[in-house]
User: What shape does this take?
Amino acid sequence: MPKYIAAIDQGTTSTRFMVFDHGGSIISVDQKEHEQIYPKPGWVEQDPLEIWKRTQDVIAGALKKGGIDPKDIGAIGITNQRETTVVWERRTGKPVHNAIVWQDTRTDGICNELEKQGGQNRLRKKTGLPLATYFSGPKLKWMLENIPGIRGRAEKGELLFGNIDSWIIWNLTAGTHVTDVTNASRTMLMNLQTLEWDDEILNLLEIPKSMLPKICSSSEIYGVAHGILEGIPVCGDLGDQQAALFGQTCTTPGEAKNTYGTGCFMLLNTGEKPVASNSGLLTTLSYKIGSQKAVYALEGSIAITGALIQWLRDNLGLIDKSAEVEALARSVDDNGDIYFVPAFSGLFAPYWKSDARGAIVGMTRFITRGHIARAALEATAYQTREVLEAMEKDSQVKLTALKVDGGMVFNELLMQFQADILDVPVIRPKVAETTALGAAYAAGLAVGFWKDLDVLRTNWSKDKEWKPSMDGVVRDKYYSQWKKAVTRTFDWLE
Assistant: This one.
């Protein structure tokens, strides 16, 4: 019996390789950042070759740090930033362009054009998604229309498309072109009912089907690894937010989690039938284990949360390290009546306004660096409440506690404010890196390392809980001011 299961966690700003034991404890980890490329306002790109290089680096790094023999690893799972779009040559594996990142807004014109017939929700019945710059389908259409010479090559079957999961698996296995249902559900090209690529939508977007990966379950053997992990089955694949839901073992309908990363993503398990949203949420896949029925989720996606703290660090120089934001925010007693709405890529759930842009409102001479830091942290909590309210409205389920994970959950000030503004307890698990853990779980189930979901549930344990302590009148005042601030960002772009 192998000792470990490993996971590649390819995120928006960095890549990690993590090795877990049977109890779900982290044995070894290595992590490296990659470059963010901003060619024009609203455009965000990454170099797929750099991402693959970083992936190889962190695999070697984690094995070395933990003194781990690859022969002791039973399977590899992959989790990834989801809608980030890569096109590469079938023969050489060379990308034809930088990856277009999920935050990128260049497909605004394409989405507006598609909206003219049938409105923003014209594809929602089939895909669970509104027309928005967020998803991969319009990004792929943009590439086919704007990169010289690639449409002809795509139609001849020379080019392949994938979210980052497909790119990593293709490189890791030396040529297996697959994705899983969770990633496919983020392209705007997959039918939620059939779990297949939808020919009508492919025709509408003028996308050759030959480019697309085979849609698989989230837990099955896709191929075996080459290189340093030679011969190890690659058999787990989940988009990062679904992986976090799975890693939190939210496997019962009505269970929810919120991941605090570059953006913020709340998912609610809705069971084996897709639930349509009337409140600006996405209907998406939760996971599919082998030949079992697919499980669906409602998702509230927030574009900018952790990225706002990076912006304070990199663009304004308010802090030297992201971790310093908590101390700076604690240097003041409250937000000084300012509100920071980080609509840098437009507003995601529940508004879906790609023409919104960021704003700090309520500024006076009284305001200091501390107030700006505090308002930046509070923005994450307010946006989460907006999503939670939409979720409760759609699902008719009242949340009693929120399981949280991701990098920002170690910010105690934010977690307490989150509990206060939601008026429910916020719970952090012992292993807060549940994204990688979820991918490892999916891979381990495929090879029998873990027997079933019940075994995974016994691995979950609580690290810390924050209980609400804010006066209701204060809570309502803060939240109504936030809602007012959000309206100030609407319709900024002409």
Summary: The radius of gyration is 21 Å. DSSP finds 16 helices and 23 strands in the chain. The mean pLDDT is 94.
